[in-house]
Amino acid sequence: MSSGAREREKAFVEHCKGANGLDKVVLREVRGSSAEVYLYGGQVTSWKNEYGEELLFVSSKATFKSPKAIRGGIPICFPQFGSHGSLEQHGFARNRFWSIDLDPPPFPTNSGNKAFIDLILKPSEEDSKIWSHRYEFRLRVTLGPGGDLMLTSRIRNTNTDGKSFTFTFAYHTYLFVTDISEVRVEGLETLDYLDNLKGRERFTEQGDAITFESEVDKIYLSTPTKIAILDHERKRTFVLRKDGLPDAVVWNPWDKKAKAISDFGDDEYKHMLCVEAACVEKPITLKPGEEWKGRQELSAVPSSYCSGQLDPCKVLQGG
Ligand SMILES: O=P(O)(O)OC[C@H]1O[C@H](O)[C@H](O)[C@@H](O)[C@@H]1O
């Protein structure tokens, strides 16, 4: 690569140090949007639009210190979502040190995006004691030219003993919202969900868009691939698109639970909402040599534009 080309690459992808000297990668796009990814957890901790406005929530009490996962951004839950299973809550990928993947296998489509980073997680000997499988988890984080944030996970079973493995997964996305009581989620109405606050009992959501006035911890099942999160006060809509991840988790701890979480401010629940592309109800099983792929794409657009885009009826009604 010529030094000019290298300089251009550096303009899109910068390797540096973040909080507590942890390795961090900053992605930048020409129009001014940016994203930050920590190798600790393979975790996106910042996503800013072209005006420099932060779109993800990270707690002011986040510790950025192993073994605690970073509270905010987009932790990766693997190989277990939640506490159902033999592993620690949400699995271990979120508190492991990932590496830069210097030679990732090619993607079928080459989109021409320049601001991206490839990370990889493989089990250490210690990890093999708690989950006795060999795998390669490749994560590509891409910032598109329009400021969209795309995460693609490719997980391959590299067991040499002929054994399959099974996992659940989530992109535990903490969106920054102005005021949770003014937020509406569209795309999950009328769906079945498992309520984590009621021992994962199954219910059916009502016909209205979802709003928030108390603690919520639900796993919506077999959802559409597109979900919209409308922040009325900021007139901003997040659009979450997903692929390979049938479920969607929605979580806000509200005031009481917030106080019980040590790395979360008492009032911070007002400014965040987790909407997570996930695969929880039906775990994924991979045979040796098999690979699974799961994608989440986020964009943030002015509300009026997006509502219309999502629901043609609303455009017709002028709503
Ligand atoms: O505190 P954490 O382990 O990061 O989990 C935070 C939350 O994550 C998910 O959204 C779960 O559905 C919740 O039950 C859990 O409380």
TrEMBL record:
Substrate binds at R71, Q89, R94. It catalyses: alpha-D-glucose 6-phosphate = beta-D-glucose 6-phosphate. It holds the Pfam family Aldose_epim. CDD domains: D-hex-6-P-epi_like (cd09020). GO terms for molecular function: carbohydrate binding; glucose-6-phosphate 1-epimerase activity. InterPro entries: Aldose_1/G6P_1-epimerase, G6P_1-epimerase, Gal_mutarotase_sf_dom, GH-type_carb-bd. It is an enzyme of class 5 (isomerase). Coiled coil: none annotated. One of its GO terms (cellular component) is cytoplasm. It comes from the Eukaryota. The active site is at H172, E276. Keywords: Isomerase. SUPFAM superfamilies: Galactose mutarotase-like. GO terms for biological process: carbohydrate metabolic process. Its EC number is 5.1.3.15. The keyword Isomerase applies. Belongs to the glucose-6-phosphate 1-epimerase family. This is glucose-6-phosphate 1-epimerase.
